[in-house]
């Protein structure tokens, strides 16, 4: 068994967190990750509702017992009702990422819930550290969805040298080799998302799962074009890594007016709709149950690390 800060403090069996992917990680996915020994997180995106959080939390709780909730901190600055909705479900962990969590950490702690923050730079980590979070997640630019630009391993090493807080890693980790690598470097475990995207428990169109299986590691692009097309008000510093398609080939890196992007975008069309996924997409070769993915990653990592125990 791989024992780390994550397993000891979150009462889980393996040091794996299921990423809170907005629009993809609902109660079924989170529950299956937790059932397999990790901790699955609900992706409470800006457009989620308190009712959605309650309903999906109930599903996750029935399937896996424990679960977490991931929130986008910058969106709470306009409306923090989703934080109240998350706290009300008594999750094992709340992540407050993409922005300064200082205004919200005390409320989560008052409910007896630990807080993690995904960070993309050393300065982000220092802000989260000052805010009093319990866990840092070093999210590298290989990650799917919204992320930063620094690679996972350089960022992880920098943060491990700069803080006494426990640090987990995210971005580009899709097999036991990746989990073993970051644990060997000093991380307490990993947050995985792309490795789960083809699993039948994910929310979203079937074509998204098919695109993940067929894509290679070079078939992603870091872009804000989907945010512009869908009027998603993400701060400029965070782009999103997605599988390339006709929409990105036509519009990424251009000055196309938003009105034209909105007109061209079609979420139902595989050639135009967004499929956020990281560079670990090249490691996903089939649509496998999420629980099987988690168990194999953990078992393979333990086997690899045992060679040096």
The CATH topology of the largest domain turns out to be TIM Barrel
Number-wise, the strands total 11
Using the coordinates above, name the CATH class of the largest domain.
Alpha Beta
Percent of residues in β-strands: 15-25%
The number of distinct helices, counting runs of at least 4 residues, comes to: 14
Instruction: Calculate the mean pLDDT score and round it.
Output: 96
The span between the termini is 12 Å
CATH superfamily of the largest domain: Aldolase class I
Protein name: Nitronate monooxygenase
InterPro entries: Aldolase_TIM, NMO
Keywords: Flavoprotein, FMN, Monooxygenase, Oxidoreductase
Pfam families: NMO (PF03060)
Description:
The chain is 40% helix and 16% strand. The chain is globular and about 55 Å long. Helix 7 links the parallel strand 5 and strand 6. 51% of the residues are buried. The protein has 14 helices and eleven strands. It has helices at residues 5-10, 27-35, 50-64, 73-76, 81-88, 105-110, 122-131, 152-162, 176-185, 206-214, 225-230, 246-251, 258-264, 290-306; strands at residues 16-18, 39-44, 68-72, 93-97, 115-119, 135-139, 145-147, 167-170, 190-192, 220-223, 239-243. It is an alpha/beta fold and 309 residues long.
